[in-house]
Amino acid sequence: QCISFLFPNGTGTEWAVDAYSQKQLPMIMKRLGSAAVRRIEVRTGLNLLDAGAPAYMGGANIYVKNRRTFDAAWAQHGAELEAEAARLASVKPLRLDTVVYGVDTTHHDA
């Protein structure tokens, strides 16, 4: 499972991605813990492949290791983490709870 936060793009919108990466990500790991979170990644500079302005400035993905542990930690620390994130962006992020599917190319026969 993955929790994604997407920061909408628009006229005058801002997201301090460097501060988010350097301050928010370590805070998330510290508050939620390695028992709850497998890894976190931040993506920025999302561009449309066929030109035009991207719908999102970027986003963060929190890969959940243990959902029950994550939910308990988020119940305790989520408000603090969301308040800190709000100081780093001029827009509220869209939050998606997703399941991730993929192919491991190191074990895929052509």
Question: Gist?
Answer:
With 110 residues, the chain is an alpha+beta fold. The chain contains 2 helices and 4 strands.
Report on the structure:
With 110 residues, the chain is α+β, with helices and mostly antiparallel strands. Helix content is 34%, strand content 26%. It has two helices and four strands; from the N terminus they run βαββαβ. It has helices spanning 17-32, 67-87, and strands at 2-8, 37-44, 56-64, 94-98. A four-stranded antiparallel sheet has the order 2-3-1-4, with helices on one face.
Helix content: 25-40%
Counting DSSP H or I runs of 4 or more residues, the number of helices is: 2
DSSP, total strands = 4
Shape field: globular
- Give the low-confidence spans: none
- What's the SSE pattern? EHEEHE
Computed over alpha carbons, the radius of gyration is 15 Å
Strand fraction band?
Answer: 25-35%
Oligomer: single chain
Q: Return the average pLDDT rounded to an integer.
A: 90
Give the biggest beta sheet: 4 strands, antiparallel
| Class from helix and strand fractions | alpha+beta
* Spatial sequence of strands, sheet with the most strands: 2-3-1-4
N/C terminus separation: 28 Å
Secondary-structure blueprint of this entry?
Blueprint: E1 2-8, H1 17-32, E2 37-44, E3 56-64, H2 67-87, E4 94-98
Antiparallel strand pairs: 1-3, 1-4, 2-3
Name the features.
26% strand, 110 residues, alpha+beta
